Amino acid sequence: QVQVVESGGGTVQPGGSLRLACAASGRVSSISVMDWHRQGPGTPRALVATISSGGTKVYADSVKGRFTISRDSTKNIMYLQMNSLKPDDTGVYYCKAGGVIDGTWENYWGQGIQVTVSS
């Protein structure tokens, strides 16, 4: 099993910055991919950014050039640096860790953390 816990959310004005962190514990050696997802008010949960164990990064078009995903494998923590925040970035941000455990691909989600961009 893998556990993931998000931190770093809050309220920020448009144009501001926040850094989210996702700490993984448990069978972390099994984690292959970690993602950030976002669910805005009245919208479905959607992928924001993903990073593989090899360091490959993919971003949603809406956050390219503003958000940066990174991963510190020594500490088992993933980060999402969010700059030039917009009101549309408001939502609950979820961390997900995925990998093969006991021969089966498993996904583990955090409880989510609120980010509000408002003046």
What this model shows, in words?
There is one protein chain. It is built from no helices and eleven strands. With 119 residues, the protein is an all-beta fold. A hairpin with a 2-residue loop joins strand 9 (91-101) and strand 10 (104-109).
- Look at the helices and sheets and give the structural class: mainly beta
Helix fraction, binned, reads under 10%
Tally of DSSP helical segments: 0
**End-to-end separation:** 40 Å
Total strands: the figure is 11
Oligomer: single chain
Contiguous runs where pLDDT drops below 50 for at least 5 residues: none
Gyration radius (Cα, Å) is 14 Å
Q: What is the helix/strand order?
A: EEEEEEEEEEE
List keywords for this structure.
about 120 residues, single chain, elongated, 4-stranded antiparallel beta sheet
Q: What's this entry about, in short?
A:
The protein is mainly beta. Helices cover 0% and strands 60% of the residues.
Topology:
Blueprint: E1 2-7, E2 10-12, E3 18-26, E4 31-39, E5 46-52, E6 57-59, E7 67-72, E8 77-82, E9 91-101, E10 104-109, E11 113-117
Parallel strand pairs: 2-11
Antiparallel strand pairs: 1-3, 3-8, 4-5, 4-9, 5-6, 7-8, 9-10, 9-11
